[in-house]
Amino acid sequence: MRKPPKVKAGPSFVQYTVSFQQYQGKWQLASAQASVKFKVRSKRDKLKSEFHSVSDLLITNIENTDLKRFTKDEKFTKQDIFVEKLGKFDEKYWENYNIIKPNEDLRKAFKNASVN
């Protein structure tokens, strides 16, 4: 969807994995993962590459609230690219959670988590 003109890009592999767990007699979302590989070609720039993106969502806290169905605009479709649909990373929203920020070195993140 966001490619320069005259560049061909398309998915070569897409896998979504979703798991649920039972909590107080109800099934709750536990985790979701999106793994996407896509090929990019540009004859003009003589570019031919393959990229792989993995996105994870882990549920670590469940609170009982009045649940409402998602609106049409909030739902994912088969054509949605998980990473683009999530939008920008909001540090303020996640400030009280143990998180690994996008682009953070995983070794450093796990080392810091084990110290805290």
Concise summary:
The protein has 116 residues and is mainly beta. It has helices at 82-86, 106-115, and strands at residues 8-23, 26-42, 47-58.
Strands in their spatial order, largest beta sheet: 1-2-3
Uncertain segments of ≥5 residues (pLDDT<50)? Answer: none
- Tell me the structural class: mainly beta
- Using DSSP, what is the number of strands? 3
Most strands sheet? 3 strands, antiparallel
What is the overall number of helices? Answer: 2
What would your notes on this structure say?
There is one protein chain. The chain has 116 residues and is mostly beta strands. It has a domain of 75 residues. It contains two helices and three strands, in the order βββαα. The protein has a three-stranded antiparallel sheet with strand order 1-2-3, with no helix packed on it. The longest helix is centred in the last third of the chain and has 10 residues. It starts with 7 loop residues before the first strand and ends with a helix. The mean pLDDT is 77.
Give the arrangement of secondary structure elements.
Layout: E1 8-23, E2 26-42, E3 47-58, H1 82-86, H2 106-115
Antiparallel strand pairs: 1-2, 2-3
Summary tags:
about 120 residues, mainly beta, 3-stranded antiparallel beta sheet, 3 strands, about 40% strand
